Amino acid sequence: xxxxxxxxxxxxxxxxxxxxxxxxxxxxxxxxxxxxxxxxxxxxxxxxxxxxxxxxxxxxxxxxxxxxxxxxxxxxxxxxxxxxxxxxxxxxxxxxxxxxxxxxxxxxxxxxxxxxxxxxxxxxxxxxxxxxxxxxxxxxxxxxxxxxxxxxxxxxxxxxxxxxxxxxxxxxxxxxxxxxxxxxxxxxxxxxxxxxxxxxxxxxxxxxxxxxxxxxxxxxxxxxxxxxxxxxxxxxxxxxxxxxxxxxxxxxxxxxxxxxxxxxxxxxxxxxxxxxxxxxxxxxxxxxxxxxxxxxxxxxxxxxxxxxxxxxxxxxxxxxxxxxxxxxxxxxxxxxxxxxxxxxxxxxxxxxxxxxxxxxxxxxxxxxxxxxxxxxx
Length: 377
Prior knowledge:
single chain, alpha+beta
């Protein structure tokens, strides 16, 4: 476990940022009310004391107040994005649901209401109100199918232990509402930048410290979740999992996906479907490298998350890789669902890439015909 000062710092920082977010949201609401009230008051004044021009001026003031108040109030209507993916019921993956229920009990965290399998290379826990802005806060677990193909069952437990640690200490009780308020305020600021670019640029400069503290909070939360996860899994296993995920992620984005997309130069439709053949591609194409090379290949800045090297240093474990390739967690927990999941994700992927794919294919064909024509001449 980290030094208690880390917990205290995270709690104070989260509380301070939550208060700032709440003040910002309340200020926008009060500004909208003020605009409405000012317009109505002016309309009443013109109606009573402006003679023949009174009704026209009153109507103009009321219209301006309505438009201004509506635009101001509209800034607040930016719901957090709903989870995306394929929802997995307890009947579809009973072993996996028993696993996450046991982990929630072990760490005394909120239980998972919904499990989603996504096409992304990550895992996350989200908390959302049932009806957008209102209703009970529901907890969603998002697990990427590529991630499940990349780790073994013990390593998946380590990944989930990290995610449940977020629920156990940072998204519990008032913490979950604070996190939702902060996320809501950030989306409002994005909306201000979209609707009023000049005002948004000024707000970004004024709130620069708020943004830096949000990034600082996110980094501390990652270190704290790693530390708490060691209550469920060994620190060495957690470090091994971090290395494994980093290696597999580099393989996917530097080797696997470029090879899949390279088919567009020779085929009108892909012969290799990325999600259907993901398990086979991981088994046949992935080659282990030196651990130091894996850490060196990681980007020094990965959004708000600390690097793998920083997380290993905080855990005080040496970088080490798994010594052998064992069956993946995907084949153990989702064996009956792999084909339907792959079919769903492959269809969505092909729908997105098809225009660019066919454009590349036809450009290459035209180029080859042009070259053959010149050779014939």
